[in-house]
Amino acid sequence: MVNIILFGPPGSGKGTQSANLINKFGLIHLSTGDLLRSEIEAKTPLGQEAKKVMDQGLLVPDEVVIGMISSKLDANPEARGFIFDGFPRTTAQAEALDKLLALKKTAISNVLALEVPEDELISRLLNRGATSGRSDDANETVIRARIVEYHNKTAPVADHYSRYGKFKKIKGEGTVDEIFERLSKEIESLVEEKV
Ligand code: AP5
After folding, report:
1. CA of residue 85 to ligand 1 center, whole Å
2. Which residues contact 88 (CB under 8 A, 6 or more apart)?
3. Do 185 and 175 form a contact (C-beta atoms < 8 A)?
4. To test the ligand 1 pocket, which listed residue (5, 7, 14, 87) has its Cβ within 8 A of the most ligand atoms?
5. At 60, which helix (H) or strand (E)?
6. Smallest Cα–Cα separation from 5: which of 89, 161, 111?
7. 32 Cα nearest atom in ligand 1
8. Per-residue pLDDT tens digits for 157-178
């Protein structure tokens, strides 16, 4: 299996690139943000609790997202591999993911970290907020809170994987196609290693 974590701050392009990469490599896209938004849309109790936290730009409790990912891994026993987008976002989530994958006799192949300057992140998210109606893109205060949460709680996940030599920075500026090429090259080399 090839299991990639697409890592990076809010607005760095994880969702955009995941959508294209899964088509090219036949992987399954697991986005905890998308899973949480589905719960909100379905007005489930979990979704209603999560919305309160997400609208402040804060992280949902670890056990909630770990449970979601665990169910999705179980639901896809034949997968060739996964692209994890927006997960893991804390060191506790990374440790839980490692254990879940080990139970399935697999592991993270690499973490590809999109690097984009903060001004560009804010401008991308404000633009999207104007058209998508995503409530956590609605104003700059919430966007900045998401970025602070990323620096405080998510950035340390880089150290967790760097220790195993599984962390690669990728320039996240440029056109969507240019970034797709950079990411594809990395994933192709992992696929070749497996053959
Ligand atoms: P989540 O949905 O994961 O959002 P995020 O990480 O904040 O990421 P975004 O979706 O905003 O950005 P992205 O990097 O995917 O970029 P995108 O491709 O969309 O999480 C939302 C919330 O859910 C969290 O705040 C938290 O509350 C909760 N949550 C989720 N997972 C959790 C977890 N594991 N633990 C706890 N809580 C969790 O692009 C952004 C914009 O830029 C788009 O408009 C796009 O068109 C544009 N764009 C993309 N690439 C380019 C480019 N190259 N040039 C110009 N524009 C571009």
Report:
1. 9
2. 5, 94, 96, 97, 157
3. no
4. 14
5. none
6. 111
7. 31
8. 999 999 999 999 999 999 999 9
Q: Where are the domains of the chain?
A: 25-187
Strand partners, 114: 170
Q: How far apart are CA 172 and CA 175, in angstroms?
A: 9
Q: What is the pLDDT of residue 194?
A: 65
> What ipTM was predicted for this assembly?
0.97
Say whether pLDDT at 114 is over 70: yes
pTM over 0.95: yes
The verdict on the CB of residue 91 being under 6 Å from ligand 1 is: no
Residue 89's identity, in one-letter code, is: R
- Looking at the annotation, which residues are catalytic? 14, 89, 128, 134, 146
Which regions of the chain does DSSP assign to beta strands (E)? 2-7, 28-31, 81-85, 110-115, 168-171
CA 80 to ligand 1 centroid distance, Å: 24
Any binding-site annotation on 124? no
Q: 146 labelled as ligand-binding? A: yes
For residue 178, the ligand 1 atom closest to its alpha carbon is 53
**pLDDT for 25-71, tens place per residue?**
999 999 999 999 999 999 999 999 999 999 999 999 999 999 999 99
- CATH number given to 25-187: 3.40.50.300
Among residues of the chain, what percentage have pLDDT more than 70?
Answer: 99
